[in-house]
Amino acid sequence: MAKGLQVRGAWGLLAFCCCSAVSFVLRNENERPIIGILAQETFENFQKFGSSYIAASYVKFIESAGARVIPVRLNRSNEEYDEIFRSINGILFPGGGVDLETSEFSRVAKIFYTKALEANDREDYFPIWGTCLGHELLTYLTSGENLLVRTNTNGFTMPLNFTQASNHSKMFQDFPEEIYELLASEPVSSHFHFWSLSMQNYTKNEKLRNFYKILTTNFHNVEFISTMEAYRYPIYGVQWHPEKNPFEWKNSTGIPHSSASIKVTFFLANFLVNEARKSNHHFSSKKAEADALIYNFNPLYTGTFSSFDQVYFFD
């Protein structure tokens, strides 16, 4: 590893163990963060259980770092989405398989994406995280175009190829050297996607170039973007699946369960939740909060007929 990365990694370990708590106190840390997860339309095997779903692994991913979750359900009124946005401290767009341009998932994501840009412009901190399809959706929402190319990267584990921009990223700057090296040298990132944003298409698109810095890439048929973050906004995208490593048990070589891969997952979850701690949004009442939490729903075991072990379904 380069000398600069060693220094950054050493500082990251110190910051994680000692200094982070101080900085959060100075920021009036929100000790009860709640993150929304956007539901999406069910596919054929799931339709008998409900019209939309959220895989439970995303819920566990967030809860593992000390936040709670509410489901952001589809086909709600603009007034309800306004109220949800004022109440939550960030939103996660999960992986899946619906259309980037025509799905209800995409329509509702655009509502929260637009609200997040407006809020952050007035210094009202609100993070967005996109995983796999959610990452791809962010590129569509930013550019207004579907620029994905076919990569058939389904069921692979890979190390990440870090760019120089990662040295100055929010996502990785406080990672301990050990975790950074694991990501760079070991196949601990889980890839389950057929489409990707190529570096070529990113480079040719001015809107994407000006909005996102590229933190990691991978190569499979073409060089594609695997991790990115916005320059001006707390918006982050990963083409890979950190939530699968500890929480999905499909018998696949594409899901690593090593102790190293688990460490990677929890440092990323910790980063996302700490971003949500910077938001001061809150529910109008304790009852409204309690009624919205995902605890009001029961996940169904789906491991025998799907790639997810547990799923929350909604009407």
From TrEMBL:
Localization: Secreted, Extracellular space
Active-site residue numbers: C132, H241
Enzyme Commission designation: 3.4.19.9
PROSITE patterns: GATASE_TYPE_1, PEPTIDASE_C26_GGH
Source superkingdom: Eukaryota
Molecular function terms, GO-annotated: gamma-glutamyl-peptidase activity
Signal peptide range: 1-21
Catalytic activity: (6S)-5,6,7,8-tetrahydrofolyl-(gamma-L-Glu)(n) + (n-1) H2O = (6S)-5,6,7,8-tetrahydrofolate + (n-1) L-glutamate
Protein name per Swiss-Prot or TrEMBL: folate gamma-glutamyl hydrolase
Gene responsible for this protein: GGH
